[in-house]
Design a protein that fits this description.
Blueprint: E1 5-7, E2 10-12, E3 16-18, H1 27-36, E4 40-47, H2 48-68, H3 76-79, H4 86-99, E5 104-109, H5 119-126, E6 130-134, H6 146-163, E7 168-172, H7 179-188, E8 193-196, E9 204-206, E10 211-213, H8 225-234, E11 241-244, H9 251-260, E12 264-267, H10 269-274, H11 278-292, H12 298-301, H13 318-333
Parallel strand pairs: 3-4, 3-12, 4-5, 5-6, 6-7, 7-8, 8-11, 11-12
Antiparallel strand pairs: 1-2, 9-10
This protein binds flavin mononucleotide.
């Protein structure tokens, strides 16, 4: 069975990609993922905050020195570059490239225009095959209109696109008011691929400490429905590679993502829960399903249930709402 899939112009052995997570943050984890059959890996993000904090600490140390020593600027080389944050990240990219045969996709994560975007080029120089730009943000400012939020995001895409020659994927959340239109603009701004969707971690409230507490819960397969809809809707509407993230757990989820039109199915929670070897089982089941249905390749079935390919395209839109509500009453009569 030919499981190959093209994603971002990278020839993947299968569509199964390990998404950004702590598992992809160490060489050991990366090797285990490759051994288990991951077709590509996305490294954890280098965050705008990490870059800015490191720059501030670096600048602060220099400023402190300037006040104390006349030769402060002379000792810059001895001070060296900061050992944490961006430098460690670039080392990880370079080490991953040396250690792995599969494509290494790095990830940059930020929301505001600024010097941090220059790291896109450093990441390319460190050897990444592709870059994923994660625009995770919460549009919480009541003075900022949707058009302004979108314009800021698009500006980031343009700047990062201009900084690198490697393929660029943009990982988005679903909370844009006219998502199909915005997706098209992201592609026009220079994205080669869209990664749908960022999973938003809602804050929890700690009833003992009476404070807001971060609380990470891994995803469940039901969460695939949202990316599934939008990948199905966008498959023929945007000229970009599409990756599904959020809720890809088993082979059934991978198949759904491919049928809707994804080029890659990314996994994080399932791999954290079951370990890297989970990929091997998913691949075997994927191949079995395709063989049983006499498909010859993954490429052949990609997008065959996208919106433009199904007899009832309105099922991807509002009609689905009515049908879903009505399906409850018929189901409950059983
Ligand atoms: C512990 C943890 C760390 C993550 N770190 C990152 C990250 O650094 N950058 C990023 O883009 N996504 C990150 N993600 C999001 C995943 O890559 C993925 O998009 C999300 O978890 C949804 O996929 P899943 O349902 O397979 O978990 C992280 C997820 C988890 C669970």
């Amino acid at each position: 069975m030919d499981l190959r899939s093209d994603y971002l112009g990278l020839a993947l052995r299968t569509p199964l990609v390990a998404s950004s997570s702590p598992l992809t943050g160490s060489l050991d984890g990366l090797r285990r993922l490759e051994d288990a059959g991951a077709a590509a890996v996305v490294l954890p993000s280098l965050f705008e905050e990490e870059i800015t904090e490191t720059a501030l600490a670096f600048h602060g140390a220099l400023e402190a020195g300037v006040g104390t020593f006349a030769e402060a600027l002379d000792y810059l080389p001895a001070f060296g570059t900061p050992a944490v944050g961006p430098d460690a990240y670039l080392e990880l990219v370079a080490a991953a490239r040396r250690a792995l045969a599969i494509p290494v996709i790095a990830s940059l994560n930020g929301t505001t225009p600024g010097g941090w975007t220059a790291y896109a080029r450093a990441i390319e120089q460190a050897g990444a095959h592709a870059l994923e730009l994660n625009l995770y943000q919460v549009a919480a400012d009541p003075d900022e209109a949707a058009a302004e939020v979108e314009a800021r995001d698009l500006e980031l895409v343009v700047v990062v696109r201009g900084a690198v020659r490697i393929p660029l994927a943009v990982k988005l959340g679903p909370f844009y008011s006219a998502f199909a239109h915005f997706a098209r603009r992201v592609v026009a701004a220079g994205a080669d691929g869209l990664v749908l969707f960022n999973r938003f971690y809602q804050p929890d409230l700690d009833l003992e400490a009476l404070e807001v507490a971060p609380h990470l819960v891994l995803s469940g397969p039901d969460e695939l429905r949202l990316p599934l809809r939008w990948i199905g809707l966008l498959r023929r509407r945007v000229d970009a590679w599409l990756a599904a993230t959020s809720g890809v757990h088993g082979a059934g989820d991978v198949l759904k993502a491919l049928l809707a039109g994804a080029d890659a199915a990314m996994m994080a929670s399932a791999l954290l829960r079951h370990g890297p070897t989970h990929i091997r089982g998913v691949e075997a089941e994927l191949a079995r399903w395709l063989e049983e249905r006499e498909y010859e390749s993954v490429e052949q079935m990609k997008g065959s249930l996208s919106q433009d390919a199904v007899p009832n395209p309105d099922a991807f839109e509002r009609a689905n709402y009515l049908r879903t509500l009505r399906s409850w009453s018929s189901a409950s009569r059983i």
